[in-house]
Write a structure and sequence with these properties.
This protein is 63% helix and 0% strand. The chain is an all-alpha fold.
Amino acid sequence: MATVLVVGSVGLLLNAMLDGIHHREYLRASHQSYARPPIEIVVQCVLALLVCTWAIVLSAPRLKPIRVSGTRDLKNFDFYSAVPGFMTFNHRPFR
């Protein structure tokens, strides 16, 4: 299902691209200035983006849990808190 949605969203995006090209050619032929694309083309682009994003989220595999129970049980709290980069020995006392 996800691949069908991706292909459909790419097709919708290609259709929006072709509509934009045809609109631009129409404006050139009628000697009008180009201000912005029509709302239909913008809606097609946004819809294609949303459908493609949803399809990619659907096609992503399930995440596997991170298992650290074997190494976590062997180490105690003193091992995790004894990070030499955070130890300071020459500090000023609070006043």
